[in-house]
Write a structure and sequence with these properties.
Blueprint: H1 6-24, E1 28-30, E2 33-35, H2 37-44, H3 52-71, H4 90-137, E3 141-146, E4 150-154, H5 156-162, H6 166-169, E5 172-173, H7 174-177, H8 181-192, E6 199-208, E7 211-223, E8 229-238, H9 240-275, H10 282-314, E9 322-325, H11 326-343, E10 347-351, E11 358-361, H12 363-379, E12 386-394, E13 399-406, H13 439-450, E14 454-460, E15 464-472
Parallel strand pairs: 10-12
Antiparallel strand pairs: 1-2, 3-4, 3-8, 4-5, 6-7, 7-8, 9-11, 12-13, 13-15, 14-15
Length: about 475
């Protein structure tokens, strides 16, 4: 039987037991002797090592060593030199076995908890990265502040819109990050309002070197601890274009109403005069009828132009593009406008290319555009003037060009950029002819939107104007 030093074995047991007792926070009981855990830890020198998972790992190694020691050593009996048998250590061995089982079980629980926390950490990290990716991909500007009005999160759109350095803004006071005092005041007021779950939506204008833009600012409170407001989220959505479109719609409705009212008023007035019997002879009655017919035709043209422009802008117009000769379209329009030109004593000069040069176009729509340009030339050219209609082929660039020149009143330079706008009329020439201001707008839509061409204008006051357009040449 192998003999061992019982005091060395006891010291090893006390070391292991002291670590376990300190871990559990309980005293160690050996037989009838109770030893405090803290004193045992001091005696064993384990107080510095018993922390977290490192403690469990160290203690586990010691336990394994003790198990191996016990398995290879006879602890049941020890024979003295006098032949007497020493007291057995069986009860102490069994206590150590139970102690080791409890330590092993606790080690497994701690290890499992550590793995669980690692999984939670990975999930939280993935969710945070996903949220940041979504935030940075937003086109709207997003700015998040905390309880102390410091910037904790912002995206690149916010940095561009509000003009600040994204890298240096984190954990900086919002009033140092933003130069916009009104926006800073809105963020602070929202935080102080203690509005849980609520939001505020306001319109705010921001001026930059690129111009003034209008933003819809949505402010929401971030929940904090103990029911307090933990910060504010500000989202800025650019509504500049929407406001411009709304204003354009309002102007369009106003202009249409005005243009419709004029011919309707004339028709209404002359109808009432006919009813009242003011046309006492056939000649006067015919004059009234002619005025009513003219105003009704004007009203019809106005409505047709509005509908055509609306269909083109909305993409609902049916386009039938076929190879067409621009020269043929020009000749057809000249034949229709020639009687009006002769009544004013105007001469029409044709400078047209051969008919075999063609472009892919909708003949009816292209004809309408050319006719509108010729009609304007006749209206604004005084008696004795000249209208020149010409076509030109640029084979090098694959383009066919049409031009209509007149020797009319011309367009002032300040009006040239706006002549193709809806309902725009040159004030200096209003006395020369009536109009709705939709003709040139329709021409531009037909040339540029429907046929992907280009239209230009060149004019000098008192010398006349030249409207030219380019279309793609068929190969």
């Amino acid at each position: 039987m192998r003999r061992v030093n019982i005091w060395s074995m006891a010291m090893l047991v006390l070391i292991v037991a002291s670590g376990t007792a300190l871990l559990w926070g309980r005293p160690l009981i050996v037989g009838r002797l109770m030893l405090p855990a803290t004193s045992l830890a001091a005696a064993g020198g384990m107080s510095a090592a018993l922390c977290g998972l490192g403690l469990v790992t160290s203690l586990r190694r010691q336990c394994r060593f003790l198990i191996q020691f016990i398995e290879t050593t006879d602890l049941d009996r020890r024979t003295s030199s006098a032949g007497e048998v020493a007291p057995t250590l069986g009860p102490l061995g069994r206590s150590i076995d139970g102690l080791l089982d409890r330590v092993a079980d606790m080690t497994e629980r701690v290890t499992g908890r550590v793995k669980e926390l690692e999984i939670h950490l990975k999930v939280a990290t993935a969710e945070r990265q996903h949220a940041q990716a979504v935030l940075y991909s937003l086109s709207d500007a997003v700015l998040v502040t905390d309880l102390f009005d410091e910037v904790v999160l912002a995206n690149e759109s916010a940095a561009r819109t509000l003009e600040f350095d994204l890298k240096r803004s984190r954990r900086s006071p919002v009033d140092r990050v933003l130069d916009d005092e009104d926006l800073v005041a809105m963020i602070r007021d929202m935080r102080k309002s203690d509005s849980h779950g609520g939001k505020r939506i306001v319109e705010h204008k921001i001026t930059s070197p690129a111009g003034e833009k209008t933003y819809k600012v949505t402010l929401s409170c971030v929940p904090g601890t103990e029911g307090e407001v933990g910060g504010v989220v500000a989202v800025l959505h650019d509504v500049t274009r929407e406001r411009e479109v709304a204003e354009m719609k309002n102007d369009f409705v106003s202009s249409v109403s005005h243009e419709l009212r004029t011919p309707l008023a004339s028709i209404h007035a002359y109808v009432e005069m006919l009813i009242d019997g003011e046309a006492r002879d056939e000649k006067t009655a015919q004059e009234f009828y002619e005025i009513i017919r003219t105003e009704a035709q004007r009203l019809g043209r106005l409505i047709d132009n509005i509908l055509n422009i609306s269909r083109i802008e909305s993409g609902l117009v049916k386009v039938n593009k076929q190879p067409q000769s621009l020269t043929v379209v020009m000749k057809d329009a000249i034949e229709v406008i020639a009687p009006q030109a002769r009544l004013k004593g105007l001469s029409i000069v044709e400078k047209l290319t051969p008919v075999f040069y063609q472009t892919r176009a909708d003949k009816d729509m292209l004809y309408q555009a050319v006719l509108n340009l010729l009609s304007n030339a006749v209206k604004y050219t005084p008696q004795g003037g000249t209208i020149t209609v010409e076509t030109e082929v640029d084979e090098a660039h694959g383009r066919v060009v049409g031009r209509i020149r007149d020797t009319g009143a011309g367009i002032p330079p300040k009006d040239l950029p706006f002549v193709f706008d809806k309902f725009y009329r040159v004030e200096a020439n209003n006395h020369m002819a009536k109009g709705t201001g939709l003709g040139l707008s329709l021409v531009r839509h037909i040339i540029e939107t429907v046929h992907q061409g280009r239209i230009v204008v060149d004019s000098q006051v008192g010398k006349g104007s030249c409207f030219g357009f380019e279309l793609e040449l068929c190969k």
